[in-house]
C-alpha cells in the first residue's frame, strides 16, 4: 500500500479557520459586551469601555488600582479558560468530521482528507463523473479500443486511464475544496465538505418545492440532482464570496488599478455601431431536395437582380422570397448569432448598400443587404468602471483560490482512492 501526505504547513487549515472564526466572534462580543467580557479579553479596553461608556451605562466611579489588578488577574484566568474552550470546540469539530468520514470507509480503506476535511467515496464518484467520459473518449479516439476488464488499469505508453482520471479528480477536488474554504472564511457557508454540500442540496430542493407549491416562479429545474447542483452550488459560492469581499472592502480594487486595467483592455470596451439590414429568406421543405433546389435558384436570381441595381425586397418578392429588416445592436447581434451564425458572419463585413453572399441555414437560403452601419464607439472609463471592478474581483478570486489550493494539506491514500474510482467506473 502506498500512501503519501502533502504538507505545506504545521497546522490544520480547517481547524485554524474554526479557531480564528471563534476568536473573531469572541472579540466582537467583548467589544460590545459587559465589563466582565472586557476582563476576559485580558483587561484591555475595547470600543466604548472608557469614561463615556461608564457614563452611558451608569456605572459610577472608576475602580481603584487594586480593584483593577484583581479584575485583570481574574480576566486573564477567564481568558485562558475561554481560549481553551474555543480550542476544544475546534478539536471537537475535527473529531466529528473524522467520525463522519469513518462511516464511509470499508475495511482496509485509509482516510482521505483535503484541507483537513474528510473526502468520501461518494464525493470522488461525483467528481469522477465530470471527467470519466472525457478520459475514456480520448483513449477510444486514439486507440479505438473497446471497453474491457482492464480498460482503466492497462498501461499505454507507461500511463493508464486510471492514472489520468485520478489526476483530474484530485485537481478538481482540491480546487473545489479551496473555493469552499474561501466561502467559509467569508461567511457565505457555515461548513465545508461533502455532507455540508448534501445539506445545501436538500435545502435548495426544499426551497424550490415550497416556491412551486406557493405558485411562485422557479427559475431552472424544480429539483437538482447532485451533479447539476454541484456546478450551481460552485457558481453560487463563488459569487457569494466575491460579494462578501466587496461588501467588506476586502480585495476591492483601487482607482489606480482600475484605470490601469482600463488602459490595458481598452479594445474590449467598444460599443459596436448599430447595423440595419434587409433580410430576404427563401424557405424550402426539409428533406425535399427539389424544394431545396428551387429555393436556392430563387435566391440566386434575387442576388443577380440586386447586383444589377434592383431593390432587395422587390427582387425577392418576384421569386417568392420574404423580406424583413433587422437591427443589429451589441445585444441583438448575440441573439441572432445563436440562431443564424452563418448569416451574422456574412453581415459582419457588409458596407452600406452592399448585398452579402447567399448562406443556407435553418431550412432556408438567406440573402442580406446592408442599409446602414453606425461607427463603433469607445466606451469611456466611467461607463465601464463597475464592470472593471467586477472583473478584477473575479481575477482576484481566481488567484486566491489557486493559492489556497497550492498550499492545501492533502492526505491522499492512492490505494483507497483508486479502488473508489474503479468502483464508480463500473
Automatic annotation (TrEMBL):
Gene3D superfamilies: 3.10.50.40. It comes from the Bacteria. GO terms for molecular function: peptidyl-prolyl cis-trans isomerase activity. Coiled coil: none annotated. The keyword Membrane applies. Keywords: Membrane, Transmembrane, Transmembrane helix. The keyword Membrane applies. The chain crosses the membrane at residues 80-102. Residues 254-386 form the PpiC domain. Signal peptide: none annotated. This is PpiC domain-containing protein. It comes from Cohnella fermenti.
